[in-house]
Design a protein that fits this description.
alpha+beta; Uridine Diphospho-n-acetylenolpyruvylglucosamine Reductase, domain 2; Uridine Diphospho-n-acetylenolpyruvylglucosamine Reductase, domain 3; Alpha-Beta Plaits; five-stranded antiparallel sheet; 35% helix; binds flavin-adenine dinucleotide
Length: 463
């Protein structure tokens, strides 16, 4: 898809934006442009020409109508925690930040639902709905916005039990490129009416429409939770245990894999004491203490049978948090321990049965390139991340090459180039390989919804 040429932001466009939003919500200050030039990924920064902060859907629609008529690029921005450059304004134009559209519009407690504006952080949302004994389960670690999570179909640690963001949304209001506001989906749990436009927009990374409101499913907070951390002699034993635990019907709420190199690095943090071995972190939720204890006993038995070297398990809330601290803070500990080093974060997913082959392949690549890269993954979903360090152009080029090897292996195992971070900038090069003729259907959809190509240009499709 050839990226169209875009019109620049002129003083007259600025005047019209100020008329729509008020002058306090339109900025061309260099500090604001810099703050919205790069997400948390390794991709290069790019400056928008103007940042706008709408507060209501009608303003979003009016800005889009103007941008569409004038052929100006518009890139939506949640809070910039994306890991694939998804929100980087590659073609300048308008950066539309949702930081000020962060309200809870209605809690439908009896329906286990909440309607929100897209800019609210999922952690902030959960702090508010906890008083109803409810929570929104998808958890990408960072305090990502709901709009950014919907747009990327973010997943994270609890997906193995509660699903990804796409599984936890019922209805959205979306502003189309031409400024029309539409509602997709409904508040009914069962929906069978017409095309599933809701899930067309979820995961579209702001390239098909802009989410202005969402009704999300909430889940009762589990009364009893346990944590289990298990070390194994080999990657193969750890990964086979993933399959065994999932196959046992135990229904873990989290099932994470961390490789030996990463455990060693994490153990440099205060109060973290992990064996330098391939390790699984698990969490289980239950409605009663006996049910929890029974499950824990079963997990212990499975792990011992699979050759575990050590099994640390607890249902005590303080000890549970302590056991999980290393996994939850892994990115923070990694970056703190790596002055002067950047990380190229790879994100592939494969069917569960292919997970051992995927991880084994990455081990071989690490050995071949004598690479100290860290593997960490949502093993219960067949999703693995490889954090590949780089310090200069040569090591960046090598990281890029290794990323390609890993993605192609995942595709050959009937997996995907991205389990949860989205296509953004970095995965566009694999879209033809992954989707073949289906990519043409995606292009048709893009063209019919955004004929001028103004929405988040440069993402999803290879140029
Ligand atoms: C430490 C760390 C850990 C992470 N762990 C995980 C993880 O475990 N699982 C996971 O899935 N992700 C993870 N992420 C990645 C990131 O948190 C997710 O991709 C998240 O969805 C990004 O949300 P955001 O609000 O920061 O969106 P941004 O990065 O600001 O934007 C992401 C995309 O959403 C679009 N967008 C934003 N708002 C809207 C809107 N209202 N309408 C339409 N499009 C919009 C943007 O244009 C962009 O394409 C992690 C990130 C960090 C920094």
């Amino acid at each position: 898809m050839t990226t169209p040429a875009f019109a620049p932001i002129t003083p007259e466009i600025l005047r019209q934006l100020q008329e729509i939003l008020g002058s306090a919500r339109v900025s061309v200050a260099r500090a604001d442009l810099d703050l919205h030039a790069r997400d948390q990924s390794h991709h290069h920064a790019a400056l928008a020409e103007v940042v706008v902060w709408p507060t209501e859907a009608e303003q979003v629609a009016a800005v889009l109508k103007l941008a569409n008529a004038q052929h100006i690029a518009v890139t939506p921005w949640g809070v910039g925690t994306g890991l694939e450059g998804n929100a980087i304004p590659l073609h300048g134009g308008i950066l539309m930040s949702f930081e000020q559209m962060d309200k809870i519009l209605k809690v439908h407690a009896d329906d286990f639902q909440v309607t929100v504006q897209p800019g609210i952080g999922h952690k902030d949302l959960n702090a508010q709905v906890a008083r109803y004994g409810l929570f929104f389960p998808p958890d990408p670690g960072a305090n990502a916005s709901i709009g950014g999570m919907l747009a990327n179909n973010a997943a994270g640690i609890r997906t193995v039990k509660y699903g990804a963001t796409k599984d936890n949304v019922l209805r959205m209001q979306v502003a189309l490129a031409n400024g029309t506001l539409i509602q997709v989906g409904s508040r009914s749990i069962k929906q069978s009416s017409g095309y599933d436009l809701l899930h067309l927009f979820v995961g579209s990374e702001g390239t098909l429409g802009v989410i202005t409101e969402a009704t999300l499913k909430l889940t009762p907070i589990a009364a009893y939770m346990s944590a289990v951390v298990v070390a194994f002699e080999s990657v193969a034993a750890a990964i086979e245990t993933v399959v065994a635990v999932r196959g046992s019907g135990l229904d873990p709420a989290a099932l994470e894999f961390v490789d030996a190199a990463h455990c060693k690095m994490l153990s440099t943090a205060e109060n973290v004491d992990l064996d330098e071995k391939p390790t699984l972190f698990m969490e289980f939720h239950a409605a009663s203490q006996p049910a929890l204890e029974y499950g824990l006993e079963m997990v212990r038995e499975i792990c011992v049978e699979m050759g575990a070297l050590s099994v640390k398990a607890t249902s005590d809330p303080t000890e549970r948090k302590q056991l999980w601290y290393a996994r939850h803070a892994s990115y923070e500990i990694l970056t703190r321990n790596s002055p002067g080093i950047e990380y190229f974060i790879n994100d592939v997913a494969v069917p569960l049965s292919a997970y051992p082959a995927m991880v084994g392949f990455i081990e071989d690549v690490k050995a071949e390139y004598k690479l100290t890269a860290y593997m960490i993954g949502h093993a219960g979903d067949g999703n693995i991340h490889v954090d590949i360090p780089f310090t200069d152009q040569a090591s960046y080029d090598q990281a890029l090459h290794i990323n390609g090897l890993i993605v192609r292996k995942a595709l050959s195992l009937e997996g995907t180039s991205t389990g949860e971070h989205g296509v953004g900038i970095g995965k566009t090069q694999f879209m033809v390989e992954e989707h073949g003729a289906a990519l043409d259907t995606m292009r048709l959809l893009k063209h019919s919804l955004d004929p001028n190509g103004i929405l988040n240009p440069g993402k999803v499709f290879p140029d």
